[in-house]
Amino acid sequence: MFQDTKIDDCYQKALAWVKEHTIPEQGIIVNTDERIPYLEVTGYFIPTLIQAKEWGLARSYAEFLAYMQQPDGSFRGPDGKKYVFDTGQALRGLVCAAGHWPEFKLAALKAADYILSQIEPNGRVHFVYEDNIPEYVQIYVLPALVETGLVFKRAEYIDAAQNSIAYYKQQPDVLSSKYLTHFLAYILDGFIDMGEGDFVKAFVEKLFLAQEKDGRISAHEGVNWVCSVGLAQMAIVGYKLGMPKAADQAVAYLCSIQNSSGGFYGSYGFGAKYFPKAEISWANKFFLDAIHLKQSLNNSIDKIKQLPSVSLLNEQEWHAAIRAGQSVEELAVKIKNNNFPVWCKPLLTHTKQEDVLLELGSGTGELAAICASYGRRVQLLDYSKESNAFAGQLFQKLGLNADFHCHDILQAIPLNSASVDWVYSSGVLEHFSDEQIIGILKESKRLARRGVMSLVPNANAIFYRIGKYKMEQEGTWKYGHEDPKWTMRPLFEAAGLEHVQEYTVGTYHALQFWGNSHDDIKKFLDQCSPEQLRHLNQGYLLFTIGIN
Q1: What is the pTM of this model?
Q2: Using one digit for the tens of pLDDT, what is the confidence trace for 187-214?
Q3: Which backbone phi and psi does 503 adopt, to 5 degrees?
Q4: Helix (H, G, I), strand (E, B) or coil at 186
């Protein structure tokens, strides 16, 4: 599965451990000394299993959660008590499962309603844990509440979560190296997934400065032993914040201490105190998640190395390529006649009238003009003076207003933070390295009050891929270096964006790259239902949206 055979071996062993320690038709065990199902961990294992393509096991876990849910929507811990935290992690699994199997929607909503009932007016989430667990771990509940609000269009969930994160940001001891890394990483990861990566970044950088050369990080201040699950979670935090070197070192250390069974004791080293003699199920969950993130970030880099040498275009070449011989008058007529590219649809779907939109790499201005004609207030940014001049004439011809900026998107953009609602780009990010893309997305996140959207060529679109390959080999490809993407999710997440959603658009447009002989293909697509087309995933462009 993974190019690194050592990582692949550790991953496969960890996944096999999960299967071996799942109680049939129930869920994952607590640990090897307590072989009863753990509802909390069973819940947040579901997204992990889906990413591992263990669909049957993920569904089995969701079915178990659905019938173990209490009448009030809550979930109990192994001690039989109701916990908001446990309910939040069950919700992570249920809302993810509901995206694939709609029958889990009711259970997800009941869990979210229970959590909502446990949030005080000031934003504090009701907390009853003991055993030195900081109450701020409740922050890790909030992203699941937001996700449920987004999926099921329940604004009250999102508002409550945002109220809570504002409360926790004000607490002076919310970030402390005295906390066990397992609990601390819950807090850090929760902040990141709530769009507060900048709030925790300096603290995380300081933690990683204390990381040993072999990748270990002390379980908490003043000790030398290591908490395995905390280290795995810190790797996840590192990948999300764009600190892959430190994260890679943490993963390498975890591989070095993994038990022959494929599991992990809770802690290792002299004086270890966190489940030092029992293999804990949640360590495998976060270890697998860390490797999933590592692999996602590495995939695009590997593909770039395999591409034939194709250079980036200068600003004159780029303007000529995207203009494709069209005049301002011809493009204006197309827009007036409602002859729109299909990929304007997600931009209009996810925004509303009076929203302020900034397009990066705006080119001819076609998409921005369409958005403006539907009541969006638009700003255009491009490094090509020719493109800006062309777009300006287009807006004038259409009687539309806009602000124009001539600037390189690889540099800090001279606009105030939170000065627009949305930042988007179309056919731009695929021309840059992953590191550059993350930088562009971080700057976009800074500028946007609500979120960031991108459209890039879809690596799954086979007709586009074959056509592109043929043109590159023939020397007729005119768009310079272009790296199609299987997913943009890890890059969005590494930039601190959250609740990332993806889908493809432009299935029929992809046929234009194939050539003229595609009547049979079009007939096949014509007889497919919208649901079948969605599953085929053959849209020319991959649309990704992340929320601030």
Answers
A1: 0.60
A2: 999 999 888 888 999 999 999 999 999 9
A3: -160, 170
A4: helix
